[in-house]
Automatic annotation (TrEMBL):
Entry binding sites for ATP: 27, 30, 112, 155, 158, 161, 164
GO biological process, one term: tRNA 3'-terminal CCA addition
Binding partners and assembly: Homodimer.
Gene transcribed to yield this protein: cca
Catalysed reactions, semicolon-separated: a tRNA precursor + 2 CTP + ATP = a tRNA with a 3' CCA end + 3 diphosphate; a tRNA with a 3' CCA end + 2 CTP + ATP = a tRNA with a 3' CCACCA end + 3 diphosphate
Function: Catalyzes the addition and repair of the essential 3'-terminal CCA sequence in tRNAs without using a nucleic acid template. Adds these three nucleotides in the order of C, C, and A to the tRNA nucleotide-73, using CTP and ATP as substrates and producing inorganic pyrophosphate. tRNA 3'-terminal CCA addition is required both for tRNA processing and repair. Also involved in tRNA surveillance by mediating tandem CCA addition to generate a CCACCA at the 3' terminus of unstable tRNAs. While stable tRNAs receive only 3'-terminal CCA, unstable tRNAs are marked with CCACCA and rapidly degraded.
A GO MF term: tRNA binding
Residue numbers binding Mg(2+): 40, 42
A Pfam family hit: PolyA_pol_RNAbd
Keywords noted in UniProt: ATP-binding, Magnesium, Metal-binding, Nucleotide-binding, Nucleotidyltransferase, RNA repair, RNA-binding, Transferase, tRNA processing
Protein name: CCA-adding enzyme
EC number of this enzyme: 2.7.7.72
Length: 405
């Protein structure tokens, strides 16, 4: 059994010692059966949130009303432990009006979204699989637990989760699940943008991206995502790009903005409609501007100096993914940066203060002008970053521009 499950077993044993049932559930069981790397480990138990809190010395209440308590082990690992529950009625196509704690594992598994996610595993790795999830995993299909349209009308997010899982796992959608999404796609309107953004990013990073995007478009779900209606062609184009290589959220959104051929002023509107943090918006705009410059002038000392190493590497990665730069290697960007004589004005050994001294304290716009020119002369290797050389260069500059100082 995977090392990550070992401490989870201790949690299960403690719950059992107190007369309760407890199992591994959800993504970690699915991924284990598939031989994939597992993410976080969830445990389902018959114990109530209050009992869970009483059994373990270190817990965090992250939603006791929904039955979820985080248990922190002696080795500081966190496990989500959730009381067996079923969901009450859904009136907003997203959240149950109430959750009802129950005593049976099967009832808990029944409320879960897809058969592959409704499998439990006990501490001896025995699989409990009332909805034949393992069979669906082997067939590589995503199938709702119960009737698709019923499950999507309860919680519309499940439609987008289905397509996102298809992209991550390269699974197809079972016929009723697919048709259910086509039928109920409008209900995605009831899902918050933040949740859509999370699912969209996971979909875009999926190993089966091409297929995931095809499903997004053929189900018609894309039309209920911010500003993607009518963008079928561009979305399908994305499917041929190796987005899995992208490291940062801002890189993903740069690729998307680029493929959608957005004008600069439209980019901000687009990103805001996905409610992305301002910091990401800013990075995307910086990437796009840098990419534009590089396409015009190619990578050079000045571009990496102005953008900095991190931004340059991100924009370079995006350009590679988009197939815009076949020649430049990551190594070349690193080299250009490493060879820079200075990294900011602060590194110049002759500063504004020195200039003022030279000009007997006379201030003026000329100081920033001369520093900007000096900065570029240094970057392009026209002068050494050395005091005597810089002083001479300043005299020459003042003469050339006919200044008094
Ligand atoms: P991931 O690898 O993305 O974490 P996961 O399957 O673990 O995938 P989570 O969002 O972590 O997904 O949810 C854990 C489990 O909770 C799921 O496997 C599923 O059983 C259940 N679940 C999550 N969201 C829903 C939902 N909207 N409707 C029904 N069941 C859900
Ligand atoms: Mg999970």
């Amino acid at each position: 059994m995977n090392i990550a499950f070992r401490q989870g077993i201790e949690i299960i044993e403690r719950l059992e010692a107190n007369g309760h049932e407890a199992y591994f559930v959800g993504g970690s069981v699915r991924d284990t059966l598939m031989g994939r790397e597992i993410g976080d480990i969830d445990i389902a138990t018959s114990a109530t949130p209050e009992e869970i809190q009483a059994f373990f010395p270190k817990t965090v209440d992250v939603g006791a009303e929904h039955g979820t308590i985080i248990v922190i082990t002696s080795e500081q690992e966190s496990y989500e432990v959730t009381t067996f529950r079923t969901d009450g009625k859904y009136t907003d196509n997203r959240h149950p009006d109430e959750v009802i704690f129950v005593k049976s594992l099967e009832e808990d598994l029944k409320r879960r979204d897809f058969t592959m996610n409704a499998i439990a595993m006990n501490k001896h790795s025995k699989i409990l699989d009332p909805f034949d999830g393992e069979k669906d995993i082997n067939r590589k299909v995503i199938r709702t637990v119960g009737k698709a349209t019923d499950r999507f009308r309860e919680d519309a997010l499940r439609m987008f989760r289905a397509v996102r899982f298809a992209s991550q796992l390269s699974f197809s959608l079972e016929a009723d699940t697919f048709l259910g999404i086509q039928e109920d796609k409008e209900l995605l309107e009831n899902v918050s943008i933040e949740r859509k953004t999370i699912e969209m990013e996971k979909l875009l990073l999926g190993q089966g991206l091409k297929f995931g995007l095809e499903l997004l478009v053929t189900t018609g779900l894309h039309a209920f995502l911010p500003k993607l209606e009518g963008k079928e062609k561009q979305l399908l184009e994305l499917g041929d790009m190796p987005l899995q290589h992208l490291k940062n959220r801002s890189a993903i959104w740069t690729v998307l903005s680029y493929v959608l051929k957005l004008e600069m002023h439209e980019v901000e509107v687009f990103l805001t409609s996905w409610k992305l943090p301002k910091k990401i918006n800013k990075s995307v705009l910086e990437n796009l501007l840098l990419m534009e410059q590089v396409q015009q002038f190619s990578w050079n000392k000045e571009s990496v100096y102005r953008a900095g190493l991190e931004r340059s590497l991100e924009a370079h990665q995006v350009m590679c993914v988009l197939g815009l730069d076949e020649e430049t290697s990551k190594k070349k960007i690193n080299e250009l940066y490493d060879k820079l004589p200075i990294y900011s004005l602060k590194d110049i050994v002759f500063n504004g203060h020195d200039l003022m001294e030279l000009a007997s304290g006379k201030r003026g716009k000329w100081i920033s002008e001369i520093l900007a020119d000096m900065e570029m002369a240094l970057i392009h290797g026209e002068i050494e970053n050395e005091r005597a050389a810089l002083k001479e260069w300043v005299y020459n500059w003042l003469q050339k521009y006919d200044r008094d100082y």
